[in-house]
């Protein structure tokens, strides 16, 4: 766990200026309504080998129906190291999902007005959404995890190896031949995460995966993500949640308010910060 951190000086030369990529053509959707979304085709090198996601001074505005420009993200900066799970917390409407979507470049062209700042993501990115039923598209677990591998020109043996390895990481190996419609919501989420891992994604963006899950499924999903980041691939995860008891599983967290990152630090620092702010319904489980 890290203590409170301060951001190192900007090294923008290695980063992508967001103003140049707010186009749907730079975004590749995995297809057929699957919840996973590939990151930009262009992969920008991270600032250092240990940094998987770096966002610096990022601002986004949207134009409302009345033509008024509404700032959504204001000078947001954050870093997520490779091999770590960081959480993104904050009240409804503060900009968490928007920030994730900027990472994955899945904002449709025309929705956003001029933007400033830089986003660097180290390698392929996968986005997993809240609704488990939108995450899995194939009849069996094995077929679903293998679904995205067609584009890699792998042998059948290599596909089996990747599928099994990914399912191992999320604790779902024994469900290989099981029909996906028989899985619980959390198990479907874990299959979706396995699909991303099978495709060798380096960055997992996870938006309120556990909102509709019971405690057993919640713990299963979060442990699957923890295990994924602990693996040899150096995967980094950014996890949006309202369930504060999940904080104890994080290497660190960012708090957002009104489009800004107002705090970052390890779990206990964030817990203290939220206690001081007297955020209602606090239950960190520690
Ligand atoms: N295209 C858009 N046009 C206008 N306003 C938008 C647009 N996209 C997002 N917003 C507004 O930006 C704010 C942030 O939205 P966002 O979905 O990122 O919040 P959030 O923190 O994820 O909230 P929640 O916790 O409820 O999921 C909201 O007030 C939302 O209405
Ligand atoms: Mg949201």
Automatic annotation (TrEMBL):
SUPFAM superfamilies: P-loop containing nucleoside triphosphate hydrolases. It comes from the Eukaryota. Residues 53-283 form the ABC transporter domain. PROSITE patterns: ABC_TRANSPORTER_1 (PS00211), ABC_TRANSPORTER_2 (PS50893). One of its GO terms (biological process) is transmembrane transport. GO terms for cellular component: chloroplast envelope; membrane. The keyword Plastid does not apply. Gene3D superfamilies: P-loop containing nucleotide triphosphate hydrolases. GO terms for molecular function: ATP binding; ATP hydrolysis activity. CDD domains: ABC_cobalt_CbiO_domain1. Keywords: ATP-binding, Nucleotide-binding, Transport. It holds the Pfam family ABC_tran. PANTHER family: ABC TRANSPORTER I FAMILY MEMBER 10 (PTHR43514:SF4). This is ABC transporter domain-containing protein. It comes from Colocasia esculenta (Wild taro).
